[in-house]
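Key result, reporting period 2: structure in, sequence out.
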């Protein structure tokens, strides 16, 4: 997820790292993204608690991984992220929570994984794949390739869920969505200007760059074309959405 950086903050970050100080991420993202925890909780509720293998694309600081491990007591989570500092932070958090034996990470650009999956020994037969605030950094062509690779890596009755910003359906809604985020920050006792003062300058890394948003409808069409038989949008709040589905029909 990108935010407009303070011009004086010149530390260069990978897209999705957002904050110059990794330790600011968990608090800052909750101030920047309205209903962040509610959004992740929706995905957690959509995951079968009996899942054994879960693939997470773009694990960040490990917040989502923790929720998955708590939801699915028998699950092994394999997390992909291209940021060494995020993976290090996530590993420390997972270890502190006592889940280190059920979590493993791979330093990888998941755009590259979509193009050349054989480069990493990730395997397939996943019961679920999840992602949050990461895939919107890919161009639409690469989003589609990624959805195809996700489908190829899942069991026949498995699911994929993604939480991401989407392209506003109308220019009028651009301002509506912006106002909602401003109001959310105010409710948290801070302004977006203060939050953005902690943001670093994002540079292109691998297949990811600045926000490359697609409409919600475009995402659903790509998922269907990639092989998902049932697609759904279990949650939407202004410009943020949780969407995905199952390979099988229900």
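The corresponding designed sequence is given below.
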């Amino acid at each position: 997820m990108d935010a407009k950086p303070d011009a004086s903050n010149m530390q260069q970050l990978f897209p999705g790292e957002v904050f110059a100080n990794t330790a600011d991420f968990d608090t800052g993202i909750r101030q920047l993204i309205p209903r962040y925890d509610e959004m992740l909780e929706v995905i957690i509720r959509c995951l079968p608690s009996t899942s054994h293998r879960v693939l997470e694309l773009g694990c960040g600081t490990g917040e989502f991984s923790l929720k998955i491990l708590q939801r699915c007591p028998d699950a092994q989570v394999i997390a992909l992220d291209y940021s060494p500092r995020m993976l290090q932070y996530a590993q420390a958090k997972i270890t502190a929570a006592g889940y280190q034996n059920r979590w493993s990470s791979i330093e990888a650009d998941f755009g590259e994984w979509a193009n050349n999956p054989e480069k990493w020994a990730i395997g397939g037969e996943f019961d679920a794949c999840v992602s949050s605030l990461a895939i919107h950094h890919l161009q639409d062509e690469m989003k589609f390739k990624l959805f195809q690779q996700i489908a190829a890596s899942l069991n026949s009755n498995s699911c994929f869920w993604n939480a991401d910003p989407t392209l506003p359906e109308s220019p009028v809604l651009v301002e509506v969505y912006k106002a909602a985020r401003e109001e959310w920050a105010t409710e948290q006792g801070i302004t977006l200007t203060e939050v953005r003062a902690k943001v670093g300058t994002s540079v292109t890394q691998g297949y990811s760059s600045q926000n490359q948003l697609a409409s919600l409808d475009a995402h659903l069409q790509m998922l269907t074309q990639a092989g998902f038989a049932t697609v759904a949008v279990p949650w939407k709040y202004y410009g943020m959405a949780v969407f995905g589905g199952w390979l099988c029909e229900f």
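Strands lie at 12-13, 53-57, 76-81, 103-107, 126-132, 154-165, 201-202, 230-237, 240-246. Residues 171-187 form the longest helix (17 residues). This case is discussed further under Risks and Mitigation.
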